[in-house]
Automatic annotation (TrEMBL):
This is DinB-like domain-containing protein. Residues 14-147 form the DinB-like domain. Pfam families: DinB_2. Gene3D superfamilies: dinb family like domain.
Amino acid sequence: MHTSSLQQNILAELDHELATTRKLLERVPYEQADFTPHPKSMKLWQLATHVVNLLAFNQLFVQHASRDFLDPNGPKPGPTPTSSEELLQRFDQYGASLRQALQDSDDEKLTDSFRLHRGEQTLMERPKGAAIRIMGLNHSIHHRGQLSVYLRLLDIPLPGMYGPSADDPSWGM
């Protein structure tokens, strides 16, 4: 009987989402970095960079027991990428690093607790596997969806993500 582990499931999901996210990021135009659909929305480049930086954030869930947002020595994202090439290079680097951290982990470690907090205030405390899914992958997918709306508003054809997109000629829309 074949059993699939928590680690294997997360890795398979990560691989799918990384490939899908990269296809979308490849279409983000740096020349329209300041585009925003609404005054309360992030700018296009800020959102694309956030999607990439979330990969490093996800790695915290795998390798540490907690993260305090008030810790001045806590990990910080690198400088904002200044080109599409730099954005994709960071995405590939962070994705590979997250994948390696997951490969170096195991089911038992992924059931250990992770606490996200701001000083004494707990924002989230869950098993690492759940933290990766909820604050990691789901959070990334949420922002990727926002990014796809930005691209649609800029009339940039979208890649298929969970099937063909309306921009795929074989879709028939």
